Automatic annotation (TrEMBL):
GO biological process: lipoprotein biosynthetic process
GO annotation, cellular component aspect: plasma membrane
Name of protein: Prolipoprotein diacylglyceryl transferase
This protein's UniProt keywords: Cell membrane, Lipoprotein, Membrane, Transferase, Transmembrane, Transmembrane helix
Molecular function terms, GO-annotated: phosphatidylglycerol-prolipoprotein diacylglyceryl transferase activity
Family as reported in the entry's similarity comment: Belongs to the Lgt family.
C-alpha cells in the first residue's frame, strides 16, 4: 500500500522523496477533475441541444478595489502565509503529519503578514489596471458550463462536511470518545454523506442560475459515477479501512491474481492489523487475515457503470430519467458490495443492516420513482 505519494515514488523509482501529500487526497483531487470534465461536457451538450440556456447578467466594470475586497484578500493571504511558511520551516513535521500542521493553531506570524500585504497589493494593482474614470454597467452572457468553478467549490466544501457528519454518525462510539479529532481528521469519509450534502449545494447554485433541478441532476449522474470510481482508487491504494470482510476462501479460478481476490493491505494508512516484522515508520501494519479488496471492485464496477451512462446520455430524452438510472445503479452496486464489506451494523426489530445498505435501498427506490415519474409525465416534461 501507498499511504503517501512518497511511498508510491519510492516503490516505482527506489528513491525517497519527502512530500506532504497523502495518496487518498491526491485521488480525491483527481476525482474532482474527472467529475469536472464530465459535468462540463454535459453542460455544453445540453446547451447545444437547447435543453439549458445561457443567461444575461449585468456587471459593473472599471471600479477600483474596495476596502472590503482588499481586506478580504489580506486575510486570505495571511492565512496562506501563516501556514505555508510554518510548514516550510518545519518541513519534516509537515511531511510526517501534514494534518496536524494544517489544522493546528501553529503558524508563522511574519509569513502571514508578508503574504497579507502581498495579496492586498496584488488585488489593488489588478483592479487599478482596469479602473475607469467613470465605472459603467455592461451586460454579459454566462454559459452554464462557466458555473463549474463555483459548483466545484460548493460541492467540495459541503461534500466534505456531509461526508464527515455521516461518518461520525456511523461511528458514533469513536466520535464520542474523541470528538475533536473525529471532526478534524481527513480520514473517515462517508460517500453518501458527501453525495447528499454536496449535491444539495450544487442544486442550490444551479437553481439560482436558471438551471432546473431535473436537468442539473441529469447532468451530474455520469460525472458522479466517474468521480466515485476514481476516488475509490485512492481508498484501495492507501488502505483507508474500506476493505471487505476476511476472505480465506480459495480462488474461484487459478488465473485470478491473489491481490484481486484477497489482500492483507500492508502499510495501510488506517494502521489496522498486526505489525509487519522489520518495518520501521508510521505505517507498519497489515491485516492478520486477508480481506476482499472491495474498493478495487467498486473502481471496476463503477467505471463500467459510468461507461454505460455515458453511452445512454444521447438516447435518454426525458428529464430526470438519467439521474433516476444513476440512483438505481449506484444503489444496487453499493448494496451488494456491503454484503462483503466491513462496516458498522445496526439492529432494528431483529433486522441487521449498515448505514450504506439503508441509504442504497432508499436511493434505488428514489431512482425507480424518478424514472416512473419521467415516463408517466413525459408530455408535461416535454417543455421542461
Amino acid at each position: 500500500m501507498f499511504p503517501t505519494v512518497s511511498h508510491f515514488i519510492e516503490y516505482l523509482l527506489g528513491i525517497q522523496v519527502p512530500l506532504p501529500f497523502n495518496t487518498f487526497g491526491v485521488f480525491v483531487a483527481l476525482a474532482f477533475i474527472g467529475g469536472y470534465w464530465a459535468f462540463t461536457k454535459e453542460f455544453k451538450r445540453k446547451e447545444a441541444l437547447g435543453v439549458i440556456h445561457a443567461i444575461k447578467k449585468t456587471i459593473t466594470i472599471g471600479k477600483p478595489a474596495s476596502t472590503i475586497e482588499i481586506a478580504s484578500n489580506a486575510i486570505f493571504g495571511f492565512l496562506i502565509g501563516y501556514k505555508l511558511v510554518y510548514a516550510l520551516l518545519n518541513y519534516k513535521l509537515f511531511v510526517s503529519d501534514a494534518q496536524t500542521v494544517l489544522l493546528s493553531t501553529k503558524g508563522n506570524i511574519l509569513g502571514g503578514l508578508f503574504f497579507a500585504g502581498l495579496f492586498a497589493y496584488w488585488d489593488y494593482q489588478e483592479k487599478n489596471k482596469v479602473k475607469l474614470d467613470k465605472p459603467k454597467v455592461v451586460e454579459v452572457t454566462q454559459h452554464p458550463h462557466e458555473l463549474m468553478g463555483n459548483l466545484i467549490v460548493w460541492a467540495a466544501v459541503w461534500g466534505f462536511l456531509g461526508a464527515k457528519i455521516f461518518d461520525n454518525l456511523e461511528h458514533w462510539d469513536s466520535f464520542v470518545a474523541d470528538p475533536i479529532n473525529s471532526l478534524l481528521s481527513f480520514s473517515g469519509l462517508t460517500f453518501y454523506g458527501g453525495l447528499i450534502c454536496g449535491g444539495a449545494a450544487v442544486l442550490y447554485i444551479a437553481r439560482k442560475n436558471g438551471i432546473k433541478v431535473l436537468h442539473m441532476l441529469d447532468i451530474g449522474g455520469p460525472g458522479m459515477m466517474l468521480a466515485y470510481s476514481i476516488g475509490r482508487i485512492g481508498c484501495h491504494m492507501s488502505g483507508d479501512g474500506d476493505w471487505g470482510i476476511p476472505n480465506l476462501n480459495p480462488k474461484p479460478v487459478s488465473w485470478l491474481p491473489d491481490w484481486l481476490w484477497a489482500y492483507s493491505y500492508p502499510n495501510n494508512v488506517a494502521n489496522e492489523g498486526a505489525p509487519i516484522p522489520g518495518c520501521v515508520g508510521k505505517f507498519c501494519n497489515e491485516l492478520v487475515q486477508p480481506a476482499y479488496p472491495t474498493p478495487l471492485y467498486e473502481v471496476i464496477v463503477c467505471f463500467i457503470l459510468f461507461l454505460i451512462l455515458w453511452k445512454l446520455r444521447d438516447r435518454i430524452k426525458l428529464p430526470g430519467m438519467m439521474f433516476g438510472i444513476y440512483l438505481m445503479m449506484n444503489g444496487v452496486e453499493r448494496f451488494f458490495i456491503e454484503l462483503i464489506r466491513v462496516n458498522t451494523k445496526y439492529n432494528v426489530a431483529g433486522i441487521q443492516f449498515t448505514q450504506a445498505e439503508l441509504i442504497s435501498c432508499l436511493m434505488f427506490l428514489a431512482g425507480l420513482l424518478l424514472v416512473l415519474y419521467s415516463v408517466r409525465n413525459k408530455e408535461k416534461l416535454a417543455n421542461y
